[in-house]
């Protein structure tokens, strides 16, 4: 199975490292034509506005939207969640393009600035049921977004408690009236068909269950067959690039 990782900016090297530990080839994606050689795609955390500008520069948005429409598995983490959302709040002046497809409203930088980044134990019953292990997962939130409203077809996989007035204010700003608005929690992990999204960074932990869960989505959606591409071709697509070992600073 060839898994693409959007490699414009952000934590793509960390995702590829986890995939390697699971015995799966990760292919760096920077051009639209490279998407035809992968069965699924991870859109990593990073600076979402910068990623959007680079994606626009390389004319990636039409190909990314088509990839989603084809039903191939796509996982967005942090900034990648923002990319997949149908609606995003708190964007910088001028906004940014979105890939869309995920029926939710996401609030960019909901949890605050870089210095307000944090880690938290999240209840993840669906993940534990499918992948085993503990009922909780250590979520790494780095200037993270949050989902404040979801459509009826979106499965909530994890949420996080916050002051209810913060959720209400965000919902009012979005014009959202969904059932999740106004509660004392925001949603931080969801699945809708072939789309998976997390507001946190599983690739920065030693727990690879989210990556394993995502890989199995290919079989569930009928996209689990291997691409006919040689190792040399994949290396040509990736380019000769030494992986970075230092952890970058992420800005959603």
UniProtKB/TrEMBL annotation:
What's one GO BP annotation on this UniProt entry? pyridoxine metabolic process
Tell whether Ligase is among the UniProt keywords: no
Q: Name one GO molecular function term.
A: lyase activity
- Reaction equation(s) it catalyzes: L-glutamine + H2O = L-glutamate + NH4(+)
**Do you know which Gene3D superfamilies this protein is assigned to?**
3.40.50.880
UniProt entry keywords in alphabetical sequence:
Glutamine amidotransferase, Hydrolase, Lyase
Task: Please tell me where L-glutamine binds in this chain.
Answer: 46-48, 108, 142-143
Q: Name one GO cellular component term.
A: glutaminase complex
The active site lies at 78, 201, 203
What SUPFAM superfamilies does the entry give? Class I glutamine amidotransferase-like
The keyword Coiled coil is assigned to this record = no
InterPro entries assigned to the protein according to its UniProt record, in alphabetical order: Class_I_gatase-like, PdxT/SNO, PdxT/SNO_CS
E.C. designation(s): 3.5.1.2
Instruction: Tell me the superkingdom of the source.
Output: Eukaryota
NCBIfam families reported in the protein's UniProt record: PLP_synth_Pdx2
**Family according to the record:** Belongs to the glutaminase PdxT/SNO family.
> Which HAMAP family does the entry link to?
PdxT
What is the designated name of this protein?
glutaminase
Q: Which organism is it from?
A: Dillenia turbinata
């Amino acid at each position: 199975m060839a898994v693409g990782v959007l490699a414009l900016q952000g934590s793509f090297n960390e995702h590829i490292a986890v995939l390697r530990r699971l015995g799966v080839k990760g292919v760096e994606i920077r051009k639209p034509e490279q998407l035809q050689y992968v069965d699924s795609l991870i859109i990593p955390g990073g600076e979402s506005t910068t990623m959007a500008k680079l994606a626009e520069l390389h004319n990636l948005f039409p190909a990314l939207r088509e990839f989603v429409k084809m039903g191939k598995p796509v996982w967005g983490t942090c900034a990648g969640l923002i990319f997949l959302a149908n609606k995003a709040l708190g964007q910088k002046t001028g906004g940014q393009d979105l890939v869309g497809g995920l029926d939710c409203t996401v609030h960019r930088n909901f949890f605050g600035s870089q210095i307000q980044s944090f880690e938290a134990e999240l209840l993840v019953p669906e993940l534990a049921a499918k992948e085993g292990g503990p009922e909780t997962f250590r979520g790494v939130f780095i200037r993270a977004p949050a989902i404040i409203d979801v459509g009826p077809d979106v499965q909530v996989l994890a949420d996080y408690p916050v002051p209810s007035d913060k959720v209400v204010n965000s919902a009012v700003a979005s014009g959202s009236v969904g059932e999740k608005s106004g509660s004392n929690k925001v949603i931080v992990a969801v699945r809708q068909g072939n789309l998976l999204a997390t507001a946190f960074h599983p690739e920065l932990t030693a727990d690879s269950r989210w990556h394993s869960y995502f890989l199995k989505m290919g079989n569930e959606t009928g996209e689990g067959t291997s691409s006919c591409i040689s190792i040399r071709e994949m290396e040509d697509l990736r380019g000769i690039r030494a992986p970075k070992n230092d952890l970058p600073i992420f800005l959603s």
